[in-house]
Amino acid sequence: MDREASPVPDRSSGVARCGHVALAGRPNVGKSTLMNHLLGRKLSITSRKPQTTRHALIGVLTEGCAQIVFVDTPGVHVADGRALNRYMVRQALTTLSEVDLVLFLVDAQGWRRGDETVLRRIEESRTPCVCVINKIDRLDDKQRLLPLIDRLRKLLDFEAIVPVSALRNIALEELTGVIVDGLPEGGHLFPDDAVTDRPLEFLIAETVREKATRRLGAELPHQTAVVVERLVAADGCTEIDAVLYVERETQKGIVVGKGGSMLKSIGEDARKDIERLIGGKAMVRLWVKVDRRWSDRADALRRFGYR
Ligand SMILES: Nc1nc2c(ncn2[C@@H]2O[C@H](COP(=O)(O)OP(=O)(O)OP(=O)(O)O)[C@@H](O)[C@H]2O)c(=O)[nH]1
Ligand SMILES: [Mg+2]
Questions:
Q1: 41 close to 205: Cβ distance less than 8 angstroms
Q2: Which residues line ligand 1 (CB under 6 A)?
Q3: How many CA atoms lie within 13 A of 206 on its CB side?
């Protein structure tokens, strides 16, 4: 996705507004896709698999006087006992009370029980909330939205209810307008050319994790973490060494693939995205290591950046 593809209109005149806006919802509703498409660039990783996002990730959009600081959050789910899952849900829930506005995402296909949990937490946070009905491109009959909108109206006093398609860029301009109107007046929190608060190593590690998740789908367990061990810009090419950590030898075999073929494909997919990210050539070398039960060990979580 190119920066030029941004659906955001020019807001070069008017009152200066700035604030934090959380994207919240159950796993897989399209929070990260929506943030990327509102920003007009790929920042947060996405996949068909629920629980893709693990860290609260900031994406900054500056348009004239307005600066929106999006906070993409992990999907709120009933966490199993593992430390990683508890960390993810905590990330999402603490964000709700720290922002100026919440975008509550639901799927156009209808209300689900998982939505209820998120809604209750938003209500508790008392943060103003806009409800975004996503994936309307999947409805052949838009009339089917009406009962859902009716139901949503009764659930909470939303600032607005906006049906969109994040993936197909439908109604994103309208949504941006609604968000800007909901922001407090004030100067910008980030430099106008800022994109995120995370270092390049983080974005690269996440890109590798996305490619592994997409290539391996159901075969790859959630217990995969990626660490960039070396990042050196040399002779017009950025050299990257990264390690994928899994929890068992059998998982290692799956990620490496026959004769290393799977790992090679993941590296190739990642290289293309990384080159777009850094705007130059990259060389990506990947390794796979086993770190037993890392997703349930506090020391390992810290080492992998889950703080
Ligand atoms: N058809 C359609 N698919 C979408 C739309 N938005 C997102 N998706 C797809 O839904 C899947 C999940 O998207 P994500 O953006 O990763 O969802 P998420 O809410 O961030 O998920 P977690 O990080 O796991 O909580 C991906 O396969 C997206 O391509 C949309 O507007 N229309
Ligand atoms: Mg996500």
A1: no
A2: 25, 27-33, 46-48, 50-53, 74-75, 134-135, 137-138, 165-168
A3: 22
Q: Please state the CATH superfamily assignment of the domain spanning residues 200-303 in this structure.
A: K homology (KH) domain (3.30.300.20)
Looking at domain 3-181, its CATH superfamily turns out to be P-loop containing nucleotide triphosphate hydrolases (3.40.50.300)
Closest ligand 1 atom to the C-alpha of 49? 24
Backbone angles phi, psi at 111, to 5 degrees: -75, 135
Distance CA 91, CA 73 (A): 7
Would the pTM of this model clear 0.85, i.e. be above it?
Answer: yes
- Assign 122 to helix, strand or coil: helix
Give the Cα separation of 136 and 47 in Å (integer). Answer: 18
AA letter at 150? D
Locate the domains of the chain by residue range.
Answer: 3-181, 200-303
Q: Are 88 and 54 in contact (CB under 8 A)?
A: yes
In this predicted model, what pLDDT tens digit does every residue of 206-237 receive, in sequence order? Answer: 999 999 999 998 777 677 899 999 999 988 89
